[in-house]
Amino acid sequence: MLHLLRCVLLSSLAATAIHAQKAVVPAAGELNDYVLEVLRAYPDDGTHTYHWPRGKGSKWRGCTKDLEYAGETLCAGDEKRRAYCCGLTFEVFLDAWRLWCERTKRPWRIADMKLADVRKLQTQWFGSARDRTCIRTALVENDLGEEVEGLERARPGDFVQLWRTKGSGHSVVFLDWVRDRDESIIGLKYWSTQKSTNGIGTRVEYFERDGKPGVTRKEFYLCRVGKGGAPKPGRYPCAGLLDDEKAEVAGELRLRKGGAFRLRFTVRTSGADSKPIELSGRWTRPAGDLVLRAELENGDVRELPASWTGDAVHYVGACGTLVFRRK
Fold first, then answer.
1. For the chain, what is the mean pLDDT?
2. Which parts of 165-311 are beta strand (E)?
3. 36 membership: H or E segment, kind and range
4. Cβ count within 10 A of residue 181
């Protein structure tokens, strides 16, 4: 009897341990830096040209190399090292997740997925005539990520499935927005593979505007890998060079438990400090993101261009992107 109870107890503990290991997913935005690191390793000199196979007989899945998962081959690469868009972005997604597992000392696997599950995930990523959301379906339905609500919340390393007014689509990694003189978003800069860049490279496309064809906003799916991981109250200092390395910034974002925040920073250019910028207001964290609503001197409330990327707060100011990491 005691032996039987011991076996039951051990089985229960084993099951609990297995359950605890299941569905390990990065915090929302945590994978973005790994995505950027992976794509920077690809040459953009025409080594990997673009190729879209004609006909329905091809079994090639658009990847430059053999993709491995769970000790088996997920799909074979191209002998000429070519790629097409959704095949390449899925390849980057897979390698970024693997790199995250290595760096965080976790077993290499996507949540609790088996090989068959990842094959289904890949099929969803590619989309179909009945499902044009593609990446969104793959991430959201498998609880691996979220659709980003609001263009201003986009961050480099997000994945995008876009469609054009002329009917064609594209699977890309988001890098930045293109803006007009009024700072309105009119297009995007992305990384993928396409004929115009002779394969892998960066490209700029514009949204449809004033009757001109372009990327349609109605079918623009901006997605981020990861779940939850919302910011916590505390101090988030910021110090270092801005994106263009021509200016130095120092400051701090403080998130208080009661929901109040205070943001203060100074930018130094050519040895001269700018006037300190100070903002305060209320903060919330919907769906693992961060919303800062500043209370202005005239009584107005303005939502700041800030977002949470898993381990830091990114604030997009006129001088560039400021990164605040928790102390």
1. 86
2. 169-179, 185-194, 199-206, 215-225, 234-241, 248-255, 260-269, 272-273, 277-284, 291-295, 301-303, 306-308
3. helix 32-40
4. 5
C-alpha 25/C-alpha 137 separation (Å) is: 16
* Averaged pLDDT for residues 221-236: 86
Task: Return all residues near 96 (Cβ < 8 A) that are at least 6 apart.
Answer: 31, 34, 35, 37, 38, 225
Q: What confidence score (pLDDT) does residue 4 get? A: 39
Q: Map residue 213 onto helix, strand or coil.
A: coil
What's the pLDDT tens digit per position in 187-213? 999 999 999 999 999 999 999 999 899
Q: Which residues have C-beta within 8 Å of that of residue 182, sequence separation ≥ 6?
A: none
The pLDDT value recorded for residue 288 is 59
Cα–Cα dist 241/253, whole Å: 17
Burial of 282 (C-beta count, 10 Å sphere; 0-12/13-18/19+)? middle
How is residue 228 written in tokens? 């939850």
| Domains of the chain, each with CATH number or no CATH | 32-225 (no CATH), 234-325 (2.40.128)
Q: Say if CB 127 and CB 134 are below 8 A apart.
A: yes
Pull the structure tokens for residue 323: 């990164």
Please give the residue that has the higher pLDDT: either 122 or 244: 122
